[in-house]
Amino acid sequence: MTGTLERPVMGPRGRTAVRIGPVSVVLRWRQLLVPLIALVVLVLVSAVSIGRGDYPIALPDVLRTLVGLGEGPQNFIVLELRAPRVVVGLLVGLALGVAGALFQTFARNPLASPDTLGITTGASVGAVAAIVLSGGSSVGAVLGGFGVPLAALCGALGTGLLLFLLAWRAGIDGYRLVLVGIALWSMGTALVDWLLTNAQIYDAAAAYVWITGSLNARTWDQAVPLAIALAVLLPLALATGRALGVMQFGDDTARGLGLRLAGGQTVVVLLAVALTAAAVSAAGPITFVALVVPQVAVRLTGGSRPPLLASGLLGAVLVVGADLVTRTALPEDLPVGILTAVIGAPYLLWLLVRGRRQFT
């Protein structure tokens, strides 16, 4: 009878079909459990990270403070000194994870990410130019007046727009997108090297710290704008789920299923670029998060494409966890981007070797 809930029917590989009148839904339990478990792990890792420092705070006390039940000194230490750093790391990982999932699903290529497509390198060009050329030229003075985060944001958005325009041929082909992105990455790297070569030693040192990606000295001034940006971008990205599910079968199939391919491709690419630009402007280019996390998420969930929500949450876990390790387990307080690069570089080599073997 219409409007009644019928008995769920177990399907293959952990799927359950639920029918409510004329509407039927297939529940994939792994795709529901993985984000939930990742969220729990993220809360625990964040609380542990906030509690570690020169003045240790127990995990229960951190959780009580976060829900508004803490005492005066703990409120200041947790909410003003330590929470901003963790929140920025959480939001950056969330944005990069979702951006990587968007790029890889659209391009149907596990190598597609903001790092390999030149978006983060474009942000580095803007930031390094703001640091090195500030006051030394008219362009540098303008960039320096913007500030390093805004200059990085402009560099990432400008590179993303250039990537979009160069890859567009009555639509965007994933293979052409990757090739154009690699070319832009190479050009951006050369520009950064040229700027650093001609920089004063103190400017070069400051630029090197930024381009490695770091959460040091992050405050609510970086966290709040990033949170506002993600509050707009993340719902839009999650709303592209149906279009992404169709795109993964190829352009001809997508058109046959009624998808406006050019418009869908434009929205996906622009959202991925905007998410990357927002993340990089807040913490610098924390590399390989957007490359590694979506492929881990797709293997954990057992789906056919990188899931957006799971990728974002796992990206947040990776960035916050890597920052915790660099602050507590290593001899020196290193930038978090160094540890994510150590994790991601071998994975990139494995992807390249695996792809070569499949090709041969």
Count of separate DSSP helical elements: 15
The CATH superfamily is identified as ABC transporter involved in vitamin B12 uptake, BtuC
The appropriate CATH architecture is: Orthogonal Bundle
Beta content comes to under 5%
Spatially, the strands of the biggest sheet line up as 1-2-3
Family: Belongs to the binding-protein-dependent transport system permease family. FecCD subfamily.
Subcellular location: Cell membrane
Keywords: Cell membrane, Membrane, Transmembrane, Transmembrane helix, Transport
Membrane topology: Multi-pass membrane protein
Summarize this structure as a short list of keywords or feature phrases.
360 residues, mainly alpha, ABC transporter involved in vitamin B12 uptake, BtuC, three-stranded antiparallel beta sheet, 3 strands, disordered N terminus, ABC_BtuC-like, transmembrane, ABC_transptr_permease_BtuC, Iron chelate uptake ABC transporter family permease subunit, transport
